[in-house]
TrEMBL record:
Keywords: DNA damage, DNA repair. It catalyses: Hydrolysis of alkylated DNA, releasing 3-methyladenine, 3-methylguanine, 7-methylguanine and 7-methyladenine. GO terms for cellular component: cytoplasm; protein-DNA complex. Its EC number is 3.2.2.21. This is DNA-3-methyladenine glycosylase II. Belongs to the alkylbase DNA glycosidase AlkA family. Residues 50-202 form the HhH-GPD domain.
Amino acid sequence: MTLKTPPYWSAACDHLMQRDRVMNKLIPQFPNACLQSRGDPFTTLARSVIGQQISVKAAQAVWDRFAALMPTMEPAQLLRLKVDDMRAAGLSARKVEYLVDLALHFDNGTLRPDDWPGMDDEAIIKQLVAIRGIGRWTAEMFLIFYLMRPNVLPLDDVGLIRGISLNYFSGDPVSRSDAREVAAAWAPYCSVATWYIWRSLDPVPVAY
């Protein structure tokens, strides 16, 4: 599967480096890396459901075992899987339920990816959080990693809050309003700044 990169990336980096002293130091440390999208909404959402509340490394291991159960990663294929096989791949009973509900939303046409390019971020989040197991954080990861929306600020993301604490407040605790204040300088490229904050904690980019 080909990976897509956002067309606005270099303009965003220039903007952030001019507006923010931390970004000015951080961005040049990762010269050849940028956000990449797999271009497949079902896979992106399934990966983010599996990744909830576990480490990146554990999520990758479970994903690899889960993906091996299907010839292709498609909603109709997932709906044919046995629950026991999905549990044996390392999925909790709840995550199995969430993945089945996700597959049903795609399979029955409740989700229409063709409509998303014309919708704003909040409208898409509202549609996604109607699916079991998808909360605001997962919807925001989807906006960043699949739709590559440039100005998403995922305040529920522990990595973002921790990274702001370390990079801007010398490790002191940070509230959501503190984070929002820091991010005021990032607009309209909060997604890009968030991505570099994540890199400051873990140099290896995550892909959903």
